[in-house]
Amino acid sequence: MTTHTATLRTGTVAAAGALLWRRQDDQLQVAMVHRPKYDDWSWAKGKLDPGETWVEAAAREVLEETGFRPRLGIPLPRSVYSMQRGTLKEIRYWAAEVMSGSGELENEIDEVAWLTPAQAQLRLSYVRDALQLQAVVDADRAGTLQTWPLAVIRHAESVPRKQWDEPDPLRPLDNDGRVQARSLVPLLAAYGIERVITSPSTRCFTTVQPYAAAAGIRLRTKDGLSEETFEQDPDRSTRHLKSLLKRGEPAALCTHRPLLPSVLKVLRKTTEPDSEFHEILAVAAEDGMAKGEALVCQIAGRGGSARVMSVERHTPS
């Protein structure tokens, strides 16, 4: 699955949202919002702003409509339907947990209700919204709703080697790369990334530095993620990834193209060989990731029991 700035045929309206879920007394609950203007009950969602990605819009709209900051989880089925005068609308959804927020509502929404799936089914104003609800229920029954995100990032565009006379690890991002680095900030924030490890090379460090600064977290440099160390000890890069899998916390890893096949191979081992996720990771490893690309896996469990439940590739626009 590739997620990027919305590219739709002319006349199609792009929107995004999420189903917030929680457990109350060991009972699954989902959040529904009520719009007094339409007197309807549905999921928190809204249109994309110009230049905004689906993921960014989903996180922003949920925060604006519910007052809760979400951590996006597994993608859910999308909705595509005709509006007035035949205009198509496409809405992409994610399951999400609450990270923070006061729950204070804006004018457009006058009530947020936490309901059991059965209660939510009865309150839905639109039949099409049942598809996302059923996906959440199915994932919960399968034990795949509770996940944590792991983002693998290739450093952004940098000054070409032939134009750089100093040591290669000091080679900086170029103008396009700095733009790509800034664009990662809302993306990683939507997934609630809490830990970032990176190659100490300048082009990697400065790719994720804007996010770390915005999130108020410390960047952790790992020599094993650098090209120079990889040439001497290829296994160190995979040890860093396995350490993240063992921790089981929302995390990001930023490195170089030569290391990606080894890193992604470890993730492929946590998927079923005939699954779409196995194929996506195989393609990314074989064809390479674009500079500034973030590949986000939602993972259930940790350590030896870790299993990839979804894969999204976010390529720079």
TrEMBL record:
Keywords: Hydrolase. Residues 11-137 form the Nudix hydrolase domain. The keyword Heme does not apply. Transmembrane segments: none annotated. CDD domains: HP_PGM_like (cd07067), NUDIX_Ap6A_hydrolase (cd03673). The keyword Cytoplasm does not apply. Pfam families: His_Phos_1, NUDIX. InterPro entries: His_Pase_superF_clade-1, His_PPase_superfam, NUDIX_hydrolase-like_dom_sf, NUDIX_hydrolase_CS, NUDIX_hydrolase_dom, Nudix_hydrolase_domain. PANTHER family: BIS(5'-NUCLEOSYL)-TETRAPHOSPHATASE [ASYMMETRICAL], DIADENOSINE 5,5-P1,P4-TETRAPHOSPHATE PYROPHOSPHOHYDROLASE MUTT. This is NUDIX domain-containing protein.
